[in-house]
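Quick one: examine the sequence and fold tokens given here and explain what the tokens say about the fold. Here goes:
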Amino acid sequence: MAKVAIVTDSVASIPEKLLDELKIHSVAYYIHRGTEVLRDLITIQRPEFLEWLATARILPTTASPGPGDYYSLYEKLAEDQGVDEIASIHISSKTSGAYQAAMVANSMLQERLPGIKVEVIDSLNASLCQGWMVIEAARASLAGKRLEEIARRVKQMVPITRMIQTADTLKYLYMGGRIGLAKSLAGTLLNIKPLIGVENGVVVPLGQARSRGKAYQMMVELVVSAVGVGGKIKVAYVHAGALPEVMKIKQILEERIQVVESIVAELSPALAVHTGPGTAGFCYYPVIDA
């Protein structure tokens, strides 16, 4: 059994198979749809939620897990599984309260179980960018690495892990209040495809194109410019009900740059609330040891 438990949020959108294989513990976000309170990927799944979201007149709201949610998991890991070290990796603190809630949970845990070491890490990112940090942390844990080394590795990934995505509209980000610095693109015409990313923990505009095909080419050029023609990357292709589109991106990207590992994943419902159906893109980071 891994000596260091790895904890994250459901919005990391890590495929269930990987969660199981890598022994990752995920805490579900809340989705408030009218009077319903749903738990991300527990009481609501991707296909049914996206089908409903495409017709919704009023967006649901999302809420991060509370301190009690994280505390309950930390306590269970310590008391039931004998874990004495935990790496807890979360979506950007500038867009959600998960990081702060986990910090409070850690303070609560230290009062009762001071021998348990918890490192709460702000990914300053989202989606599978956060997910990559979690995946690599879990692999390191399974390889026998201890908390200090795992935390150092994750923190090294924070400034170099990048997200680029596009959609037919930014109305979902705008309506959900997660538009960040990309607000200037919110009013673009329907035939303009905006490109967005995350920098320093907030959503930023990366450009715009007149078709999805041109947007995909621009996305690939941004990666090539960032890592160089001979660069190597690990990439997660992410989408919200747009698998055929994300596979087009995959083909274009892998013709231009060396991908040493790839994942195809669909956003969790709590994240899809803010991106909307049809979103397609990727999260990547450069590697020098593969």
